[in-house]
Amino acid sequence: MTTSPVLLPDPGLLEPFNDSLKGAGFVLTDPGGKALRVAANPCGGWDDECLVGPLCPHGWSVRRAPITVSGGVVGFLVEQRAPDSPAPDLFEAVRRLLADGAQTRLDLDSTVAELVEKYELLSVLYDSAATIVSISSLEEVSQRILDEAVQTLEVEYASLMLIEESGTSLRVAAARGLRGDSGGKTSIELGEGIAGYVARQGKPLLVEDLSTHELACQATREEYRPGSLLSVPLKVKDRVLGVLNVHKTTGPPFRTGDLKLLSALADLAALSIENARTYQNAITDRLTSLYNYGYFKEQLEASLEAARKAGATLSLVMFDIDHFKNFNDKNGHELGNMVLVGVAAICLANCRQKTDRVPDLVARYGGEEFIIMLQGVPRDDAFRVAERIRRLVQDEPFEGAENQPGGRVTISLGVASFPDDALTSDALINRADEALYRAKRSGRNNVQLA
Prior knowledge:
Elements: E1 24-29, E2 35-40, E3 61-69, E4 72-81, H1 91-132, H2 138-153, E5 157-163, E6 169-176, E7 187-189, H3 193-201, E8 205-207, H4 218-224, E9 228-236, E10 239-248, H5 256-283, H6 293-310, E11 314-321, H7 324-331, H8 333-349, E12 361-366, E13 369-375, H9 379-395, E14 411-418, H10 425-441, E15 447-449
Parallel strand pairs: 14-15
Antiparallel strand pairs: 1-2, 1-4, 3-4, 5-6, 5-10, 6-7, 8-9, 9-10, 11-13, 11-14, 12-13
């Protein structure tokens, strides 16, 4: 046990004995034997010869016993007693008094330190919660959680990994620096390496030295670089959603306090991820992974208001799959679903993405109908976007397309723009719908402007 001045017995506890003992006295020493305080009436010598027994040079008897706190020696109590002294034997009582006093101080210091640690932890969590819980995008939540972990623990590398729908592997959802926990891979199997182990066990892990840890296989170590790593599970009601990892290559290794802090942040992160997923499911069509009509309408209203204020344009492209009932009747709904998913993928691939400055919004309107919102795009440009998608769909070799009229899957599209064709969301959707049905009446597989 390492001693410190804080853990030494309080010499002031000997003061009451100054006037109560005749022919006897106590000396308190530090763990090394250095005298700290004398009480009552010892022989008059404080030097080393007077503090060891059984007799001091002055003929007084000497008793010496350690004062222990939490299993460690924090000092010694020495009693000096004159021959035929009438003083009562208080040696053991005084020793216990000093030990109990030191233990109380240690417990108080530990309690204060724990309270300070908890306060700092709550402060971090409060600040983190204020920025994380309000985010509804799973991707943005993942990125923000990593920002908080990197900033709070002052690390170089971090990653957030989520369990995939198969339930057998983890994929990297967000990362900072080198992904040391997964060896640079974007996906690992449950049980593989440190992150896979933590995900499978559902228990946090502190690795002080990656170069010697048994779970860091040789192939992975080459990616790691030397350092220390924390890996904690993201859990909601004992259900593991993924793993949060932080890794540093410089400075002292992580300690238990760091693990507690990251675990608390992981609990907050897991709830935020679960909420983001719940929200994402509420606004997303499960088959195509496109936004549903309710979310689309909400965003259209907001985008139209922004376009009015900015004096900007906004266009809608609305379309459906030609003869889709015939496709389902001839090929079955399973292949029909594959066509819906394929058409959705073509739309997404040919629209501006979430990472673009002004992304497009693609939604499943209902059944085999789809709708795209193009912000800042005028009629003619929207027509060209619609025409490109039409060509790509007709050229896609969908299974079962041979049973369609013309031997291929095609779509009919209508385009309407704000403010040229309509000023409200409902009117704009109606104008795009009218253009779509004009395309149907014009032989299908074409684009019509409102």
